Amino acid sequence: MTARADPLLDALSGLPPGALRLGADVGAGHARDMSMTPGVLLRPGSTAEVALMLAACNDLRRPVVVQGGRTGLAGGASPREGEVALSLERMRDLTEADPLTSTIIAEAGVTLQRVQEAASAGGLRLAIDIGSRGSATIGGVIACNAGGIRVISHGMMRQHVLGLEAVLADGTILSRLGTLVKDNTGTDLKHLFIGTEGTLGVVTRAVLALSPEPADLAMAYCALGRLVDARGVLQSLQARFGRRLSAFEFIEARVHAAACAFGAVSPVPEGQGPTP
Ligand SMILES: Cc1cc2nc3c(=O)[nH]c(=O)nc-3n(C[C@H](O)[C@H](O)[C@H](O)COP(=O)(O)OP(=O)(O)OC[C@H]3O[C@@H](n4cnc5c(N)ncnc54)[C@H](O)[C@@H]3O)c2cc1C
């Protein structure tokens, strides 16, 4: 179908500039690995525009793939033949951290790192951290229910979402942006959108729970001879520190070597390298 003959473009003709890209203007970055560059890229700037776009796609039975930072490793953001891509890259509003409720409200396209930095500026932190923090978006992290290096003490992303706004495939907006930890006013629908990778709706905004920055942090870097020893180290640290052990990560020898070559970490002394 040529762009001109596409009825979706007629349905969305009232969109503001920048909200829609076609053909070569889409950019190869919106493809992933072996997937194809989508012919139509929708770039909503607001929840209302997400609703308008999804309703139009739904009416025309056009399949949609939702894209955040496109760092996911399972291919969920990779467009397939005939799919329209809907990227949250223009939805980047972020409030300041609220010290009274220990929360922050982020639109779906805000990167995890920006939220971490905003929380830190308020003396608080979002206790989720993953290597893709600089590109992964709040919408994507919620959609994947990401874990990361602090998962053993702080749980997965689900534990940090207090309120959520999402748009269903027909354009219906569901909004429950409460900031309360204790909220048992009816069915908590937000859980339908956490970890379901956009299959049940598009996450547009979230209220995230923050916690105080720890007063002090200590890091131990252990070089082990065998993988099985990592479990023993973890168990003894947990026995000693309980929930104060905030993060734990195992690094394979080849990954460690690559990080050293890149200059990101220091090599361990000769003969004491990590598990092959
Ligand atoms: C270096 C690196 C380290 C990582 N480390 C970890 C880790 O330690 N733990 C861990 O759990 N994961 C890890 N990940 C994967 C991690 O889950 C993703 O990076 C991140 O959660 C995806 O966010 P994204 O914005 O890039 O989403 P995308 O990759 O764009 O999308 C991921 C999925 O979510 C859907 N989606 C995106 N945005 C929305 C939205 N607004 N509404 C609904 N659906 C949406 C997409 O359709 C797709 O199915 C890592 C990835 C990398 C590259």
TrEMBL record:
FAD-binding PCMH-type domain boundaries: 34-213
GO molecular function: FAD binding; oxidoreductase activity
GO biological process: respiratory electron transport chain
Record EC number: 1.-.-.-
EC class: oxidoreductase
Alphabetical list of Gene3D superfamilies matching this protein: 3.30.465.10
Superkingdom: Bacteria
Residue ranges of coiled coil: none
Cofactor: FAD
One Pfam family cited in the UniProt record for this chain: FAD_binding_4
Alphabetized UniProt keyword annotations: FAD, Flavoprotein, Oxidoreductase
Name used for this protein in its record: Putative FAD-linked oxidoreductase
